[in-house]
Amino acid sequence: MTQEELDALMAGGLDSLEEEPAPKIEEEPEEEEISNRGYRVTSQSSWPPPPPTDDHKMVHQLDDVTRDSELKATEVFDKLESINETFVLIEDKCAKVLDLTNSNIDLFANLVEKFPNVDSFQKALEENKNLKESIDEIILNAQNGEDDIMMTMDIMQYQDIHRQKIERVINVMRALSKYMSSLFEGKIEDAKRVSSAVHIQGDSTTEDIVTNEDIEALIESLGKK
Q1: Distances from the Cα of 26 to the Cα of 22, 23, 29, 32, 70, angstroms
Q2: What's the CATH fold of domain 58-177?
Q3: Predicted TM-score of the model (pTM)
Q4: Which of 16, 43, 155, 192 is least surrounded by Cβ atoms within 10 Å, i.e. has the fewest?
Q5: Cβ(135)–Cβ(80) under 8 Å?
């Protein structure tokens, strides 16, 4: 007790003194924990889980994935086949040009041999030889492109394998769903079941609930008045 408080007490009370507010103690929110093999759910977590709409249905989503995956894979295969056909066409056209170039090389080689002093024949011979090298390079690139497309198609086969794995997961999930439904199946239809009791002796949260019978009785009593 300070000297000021002691003087106020001797004078007749502590009303004139300002009371300091007590520090607020922040209460930590209570957490409801549900443990299942390391999975921890608290009151601050998203619980209950999302509703079973189309956006949250697992099998529904996986069906969309497999369908879209198969569709896109088919489109990719079609494009690859189209590119491969283009490479084959380029290779065929180049082969024809190469035949003509080889004929020109033979022709100008004979002319150069007979007329060594004519520079135009020698120049034409060199140009055709350079053209032949370029055509050979184009054909080689086209063949490499065909090989790359075949390798890409082989890689795309893994896409189909992944789709089959997802479909296997779907089948397991559907079988499990059917098993659970059969496990919880009853002999009595839900429409023929007795309605559940509103309050059972020992409950602490349902004693003050008004039942439908209570409401009807209240209405009937008001009508009599």
Answers
A1: 12, 9, 9, 18, 56
A2: Helix Hairpins (1.10.287)
A3: 0.55
A4: 192
A5: no
